[in-house]
Structure formats: C-alpha cells, structure tokens
Amino acid sequence: xxxxxxxxxxxxxxxxxxxxxxxxxFDWNSVMTIRVFKLDLVTWDEIRFSxxxxxxxxxxxxxxxxxxxxxxxELERRYPAAGGWQAKVVQPAFARNEVxxxxxx
Length: 105
Hints:
This protein has 105 residues and is of the alpha+beta class. Helix content is 15%, strand content 38%.
C-alpha cells in the first residue's frame, strides 16, 4: 500500500477567534457551511471537513493534518449540530457519504 506523505501537511491550530491552517487564519464567524465527507483513496478512506466562508472561499481540513483532533473537538463545541458526524460519514466504506453538518441561516 502506498500512502501520501503527510509530513508536509499544514498544521491546523486553534486561535482565539477561529483557526489557522498553515499561514492563513480563519474566524469561526466567517463560516457559512460545514460539510464532512470521505475521499476514496482506493485502499483507504480519508475524512475531510469542508468549510464555505463568507468571503466565498472554500477550505478543507483533513484527518491526516496535525492538530485535527483538537480542531474537531472545538468545532463540535462551537457547532453542536456537527456532533455525531462519525455515524453519518464513516459507513459504508469507500463511499463519499457527504453530509452538511451546519449551515448559517
């Protein structure tokens, strides 16, 4: 099995008002939509969160990025509707299973 080298993935880190991915910072208040899905990478799946921001930008956070667990814990704290995402996306294997977890009304 050949896996991508995640050593160069940017760290996702929490800030006072949001989060940072590499050198870019994002405010939680700019989040318009939160989705979760899986990428089918032939021999394994990779979970990703996708964010549509008020600026029109879309960004993704991968389960392979350093800081992912802390990031998801904060996301679930700030957006309770995002809780339980694992049951919605993990099965069946190798299916995208994309789900909108939260959307600004």
